[in-house]
Amino acid sequence: MKIQQIIGDFLDANVFLVEKDGQALIVDSGASVDKIKEALGDKKIVGALLTHAHYDHACHCLDYAKDFGCKIYVSEHGKEILQDHEKNYSEDFEVKNFSVFQFLKGDGAMRIGDFEVQYFATPGHSPCAICYKIGDDLFAGDTLFSNSIGRTDLYKSDKKEMIASLEKLDKIEFKTCHSGHGEDSTFDRQKRNIKVFLRFLQR
Ligand SMILES: [Zn+2]
């Protein structure tokens, strides 16, 4: 499995291209179709996973569905945020037709193309936050950063939910954490990160 990091158009949000055997999964959609195509080569996109519905991560998802003919996977709690530009923090991005979306509920596992994807509901930064695990790699969106965690002062952010999500993530094994912004981090680094921020949040 190969993972490419592509920097998106807004707030330097990360997009990841996860590749295996000629297939590719996209994590988040902040980068234009052209940027994706440049990195993709001759591989086939089999799906796009959204870590949450904020504009910097969701802005090009409909373009991906149209250009690559793939489904968009998002938390069931993402619908109301995708529908309303004030809730997704954009000027005018609003999804009206959800036919290309597959809504995910709670925790679970699914097969997309040749990829086995585990997903974990991790509300706190946003009610629609999901972390995905593919192989030994965790895609943490704006829940975990290399040195920090996501903001909990946005629409339907929730500190108590963030605490529960961090406790959940603390029990998940992985090798590398790929965050929604900034650089990758290791399992050991995230173990320390989670401990520190649990102490902050519990005050
Ligand atoms: Zn966000």
Description:
With 203 residues, the chain is of the alpha/beta class. The protein has one domain: Ribonuclease Z/Hydroxyacylglutathione hydrolase-like (Metallo-beta-lactamase, Chain A). The chain is 25% helix and 30% strand. It has helices spanning 33-40, 55-58, 61-68, 79-82, 159-169, 187-201; strands spanning 2-7, 14-20, 23-27, 44-49, 72-75, 101-104, 108-112, 115-121, 130-134, 137-141, 176-179, 185-186. Strand 11 (176-179) and strand 12 (185-186) form a beta hairpin. Helix 5 (159-169) runs antiparallel to helix 6 (187-201). The protein is globular, with a radius of gyration of 16 Å. Zinc ion binds at residues 52, 54, 125-126, 142.
Please specify the SSE layout and strand pairing.
Layout: E1 2-7, E2 14-20, E3 23-27, H1 33-40, E4 44-49, H2 55-58, H3 61-68, E5 72-75, H4 79-82, E6 101-104, E7 108-112, E8 115-121, E9 130-134, E10 137-141, H5 159-169, E11 176-179, E12 185-186, H6 187-201
Parallel strand pairs: 3-4, 4-5, 5-6, 10-11
Antiparallel strand pairs: 1-2, 2-3, 7-8, 8-9, 9-10, 11-12
Bound molecules: zinc ion.
In sequence order, what are the helices and strands, one letter per element? EEEHEHHEHEEEEEHEEH
- Give the overall silhouette: globular
> Would you tell me the structural class of the helices and strands?
alpha/beta
What's the main sheet like?
6 strands, mixed
Percent range for helical residues?
A: 10-25%
Strand order of the largest sheet: 1-2-3-4-5-6
CATH homologous superfamily descriptor: Ribonuclease Z/Hydroxyacylglutathione hydrolase-like
The stretches of 5 or more residues where confidence is low (pLDDT under 50) are none
Identify the quaternary structure here.
single chain
The count of strands amounts to 12
- Predict the CATH topology: Metallo-beta-lactamase, Chain A
Q: What molecules are bound to this protein?
A: zinc ion
